[in-house]
Amino acid sequence: MTQTRDTIMGALSAIALPDGGDLASRDLIRALTIESGVVSFVIEAPTPEQAAAMEPQRRAAEAAVAALDGVQKVSAILTAHGPAAKAPEPPQLKVGGHPTPQAGPEDIPGVARILAVASGKGGVGKSTLSSNLAVALARQGRKVGLLDADILGPSQPRMMGATKGPASADGKTMLPVEAHGVKMISIGLMMDPDQAVVWRGPMLMGALQQFMFKVDWAPLDVLIVDLPPGTGDVQLTLSQKTKVTGALIVSTPQDVALLDARKAIDMFQKVRVPVLGLVENMSMYVCPKCGNEDHIFGHGGVRDEAEKLGLPFLGEIPLALDVRVAGDSGTPIAAGEGPVADAYMKLAAELVEGGIA
Predict the structure, then answer these.
(1) d(CA 295, CA 284)
(2) Distance (Å, rounded) from C-alpha 244 to C-alpha 231?
(3) Kind of pairing between the strands at 313-319 and 275-286
(4) In this structure, are strands 246-251 and 177-179 parallel, antiparallel, or unpaired?
(5) Which range (42-51, 122-131, 332-341) has the least confidence?
(6) Quick check: 258 and 301 in contact, CB under 8 A?
C-alpha cells in the first residue's frame, strides 16, 4: 500500500511535543517526500535549543512512519528555524570615577575590623608584610580580606599568586578572588600588568570607595588594607569613608625611613585613626650559609621610636632571600614553614590575642 502525505501527517500527529501540541498541529514538518517506499522529512524546531531537546520526538516520528504499510525506509532530520541564541556577555566592570558623597565614615558590610598597613615611604616592605600577615592570620583561623589600595602600583596579585579577575553579576558589585585562604581585590586583577594606571586623585578615591563598598567581603573578621606610600588622597579617603579600626606602621630601622614613618603616624593622629603599633621590617639578615647575623639597615630603631612615642612595638621581621623568592612566585612565605614564617605567625598571634585582628 502506497502511503500519502495525509496518512503520514496523521501518523506524525500522534507525536506529542514537550511544550504542548504535536508535530503536525504545530506545523514543524518540512520537505516531506514519498518515493518508492522511502519517506523523508525535516522537523524544523523554532530554535536550536528546542531542536536539541527534540531527539526523542525525532526517533518516535521515524518509528511511527516506519510502522505504516508499504514504508521501507524513513529518514527524519532535526533542524532549527532561527540561529542559536547568543550567550549573554558578562557585565563589564568599571573601576574608578569620582567618589560618591557620604554623610560620614561607614561600616563595610560584614567586616568586623579594618586594619590599615601604612608607611611614610616606599620600599620598606609594606606590601610584603600585608600579604604575609593576611596569610598568617588566615592560618590562625581568622576570616581575612586583603584590599590592595596601592592603585598606581598594585603588587598583591603577583605576591598572592592571583591572576583571575573578580566576577560580577551586575557590573557594579564584585566578588573578591581567593588565594591562600584570603579574599583579595586589586586593580592589578583588572588591568594589563604592563600598562600604567595614570589617574588623578579623584579617580583613585573613587576606585578605593568601590573596593570598600562594592565588593562582597562578608563575612570577614579583619580586612587588611595595603596602603600606598605617603599621606595623600588614598589615606584620607580611607579614613573619611569608612571606620578604620587602626593602623599598623611599617618601617625599616634606619633614620631615613623613620623620618617618614613619623609623618604617617602624625597623619593618622590628625584624622583620628588609632595607631595600633609599629613593626620593624628587614630587622636583620641571617646568612643562609654561615648563620652570621647582619643588621644591614641598623637594628632597634623602630622599637626605640615606638617607646619614644608611647606606641606598642609589635615585632621584628627579618630580611631573607626566601621572602623575595616566595613573593615573586605567588606563595607568601607565611604560607610555609621556617624562621620568617614563624615571625609572621607570631605577629598574627599577638594581634589576635590582643583583640586587634
Answers:
(1) 5
(2) 16
(3) parallel
(4) unpaired
(5) 42-51
(6) yes
pLDDT tens digits, residue range 159-215?
A: 999 988 898 888 788 999 999 999 999 999 988 888 888 889 899 999 999 999 999
Any idea which residue has 508535530 for its cell? 23
pLDDT at residue 88, as a whole number: 59
Could you give the CA distance from residue 63 to residue 74 in angstroms, rounded to a whole number? 8
Give the number of C-alpha atoms closer than 13 A to the C-alpha of residue 222, restricted to the C-beta side: 26
Burial label for 164, CB within 10 Å (0-12, 13-18, 19+), is exposed
pLDDT digits (tens, 9 = 90+) for 346-357: 999 999 999 998
Residues 6+ apart with CB under 8 A from 233: 201, 202, 204, 205
Distances in Å between the Cα of 314 and the Cα atoms of 47, 123, 164, 251, 319 are 66, 20, 34, 12, 16
Q: What is the pLDDT of residue 277?
A: 95
pLDDT at 47 (0 to 100):
85
| pLDDT level of residue 84 (50, 70, 90 thresholds) | low
Rounded CA separation 19/37 (Å): 32
For residue 259, the SS3 value is helix
CA distance 240 to 101: 11
Q: Give the percent of the chain with pLDDT over 90.
A: 63
Contact partners, residue 218, CB within 8 Å, separation at least 6: 109, 110, 111
Whether the Cβ atoms of residue 119 and residue 261 lie closer than 8 Å to each other: yes
- Residues sharing a CB contact under 8 Å with residue 337, sequence separation 6 or more, in sequence order: none
pLDDT band, residue 89 (cuts 50/70/90):
low
**Helix, strand, coil % in the chain, rounded to nearest 5:** 35, 25, 40
* 8-state DSSP, 43: E
CA of residue 66 relative to chain centroid, distance:
58
